[in-house]
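pls ignore typos typing on phone
heme C + seq
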Amino acid sequence: MAQDGAQLYGLYCSACHAADGKGATGGQFPPLAGSEWVAGTADRSIKIVLQGLHQPIEVSGKTYNLEMPPQGAALTDEHIAAILSYVRSAWGNKDSAVSVDQVKKVRAATLNRKEYWTAPELLKLHPLENVKPPLTNLISHHYKGQFDKLPDLTKLKPDAVEEEPSGFIDYSDYAKTDHFAMMWEGELETPAGKHEFHLDSDDMSRLVVDGTVVLEIKTPGPIGRAVKKTIQLTKGVHKIRVEYCEVANLEGLSVGVKMPGQRSIKWLSSEKGSASGKAWPEIMLTPVAGRPVIYRNFIQGTSARGIGVGFPGEINIAYSADNYAPEMIWSGKFIDAGHHWTDRGIGYEPPAGDGVVNLTKQKVFAFVSEEGGAWPATSSAPTRFRGYQLSPQGNPTFLVEVAGAKIFDAYESVFSPSQALQRSIRMDGNVTQPISLLIFSGAVQDAMPNRFSAGGLTVQISGGAFRYGKNTVVLDLKGEGAKILYSW
Ligand code: HEC
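k done
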């Protein structure tokens, strides 16, 4: 059976989860090898295969927010049992085989289900066996009603009370309804020391520890109004009470605690917030299969029409289509798309990496002045952004039209002698007037005709020379173009 399973796995699962179970395209998809969702009861996996899965899920410490299509119609019970028996015994997984009977039962029990599963739903039905629940003896209370402020729920009569063996604060059973309140009571085991509690909600919420109100969000409103407070706790078990009130439209509730000596927040709710008040899951964008990844959205530090490019080798730029130039360059992580992809997409997202260097923040093309080029020049050149093209390797060339000339501004990540970004600027067409391009504005160090540095970044030119003004570095564009290398 496991042998059939391996073949079927290759046909039906490996495109996304990879032949080695580690998740296809370098971990863009979640792993099945070592997955806590695969281990333990097979019902979880059977349901995922039958009806599909969407929305955020954390697997082995990493959050995914993708969609797995249902395969219940394509696969027989025998197929599913064989595949899952294989998955549960391959790549170091050591769980029991799955019987055809078990798949049959789950299929019969979920026959009427048309929607995809979500992680909180599955967790509620089948808590992860190998993961200790964050809260023990957790009980939820549900109250119907239209509340304009958070009432004292302990005084109201709930219409439903349930045990929550998953140990997570979770309102997803009522997510499709408005006008309700919920209260959870459970126990949290803590070491002695300072505990930083976090709370965010849409709409109102309250966190009570050992009978004392620690945090409160008193007015209706969206996620992104996170509050936090540090309190001293003794070693032992503490009573936690969370009260929540949903007025209308969207819901959201995240409750977490940073324990002494811990760098990250332990989330007590199935929804995760973030220390900075973000309540969306992290969706870190990374280059896939050696190709740059492009992010067109509001990027903090550049203009509204920003185009982010994350190159292989952890080099990233934010190009402004309003000002025709890369305005920021940084190393490390590219950008967290969680904000724009799962929230309502309002606001600017900062670069996720470090060492952000601002290159310019204004329109960069100008006619060279008669005196031979002070910056800013006497008049700026009429300029139009013409979009970008991708090379077969996925590298972008931005097209700009300046006074009748076409400027091709191409970028690729190179290794020379360490990871660097190479920018190639080329001109085409009739250039009616000498044009200069602002490369950098701000204070620079080690200014030389062919190189300078700023904020730890070294900028080198070949096929041209930099011209320095007061807090500016300018390139006078010539027919043959120039290459600029950005490195750290
Ligand atoms: C088209 C791509 C695709 C295919 C094919 C696919 N999956 Fe998935 N799978 C996903 C995605 C994406 C997720 C995470 C969904 C989310 O983010 O909510 C996932 C999640 C899972 C999970 C839970 C999370 C984890 O990593 O443990 C299991 C178990 C799983 N898939 C099993 C399978 C099995 C078994 C097959 C083959 C029968 C299969 N999948 C086929 C894309 C796929």
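The helical segments are 2-12, 14-17, 24-27, 43-51, 77-87, 100-109, 119-125, 338-342. The CA atoms of residues 90 and 167 lie 30 Å apart. more later
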